[in-house]
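Hey, sorry to bother you again with one of my protein questions. A protein chain has come my way and I'm curious about its shape. It would help a lot if you went through both lines with me. I owe you a coffee for this, so here goes:
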Amino acid sequence: MQIRDCSATDEAGWRGLWQGFLDYYEVSLAPEITAFTWARLLDPASPLKARLAVEGDQLLGFAIHQHHPSTWVMGDDCYLEDLFVSPTARGKGIGRALIEDLIGLARANGWQRLYWNTDASNATARKLYDSFTPDDGHVRYRMQL
């Protein structure tokens, strides 16, 4: 297995994983939102990027992330926005490998912190995340505009 940046040839595989991610969270998005997300992942000017776990020609998972300035450190933070591993590939350390890859990428770019959110009831993910760092006790608020 290797972890690498996404490329234009990954679109079909990424869309399959993305649909699995949406299904897991029981979310439906308009097709134009998914198309817009994919376009931003490929746009060199966009801060939104994806790292893919790949074995042969099979996409196993993704880590969608972005870095941004922070008022809390002298530098940028990296936000892991979406992490997903195909159900058939779970339990093989792929989620851990994607996070470790992102830690390495963040360090190489001089980003100061890596952070993410998860559903409070996602015990499997939280067990993995707790192995990296304890949760910081923050509660997220999100308002649709």
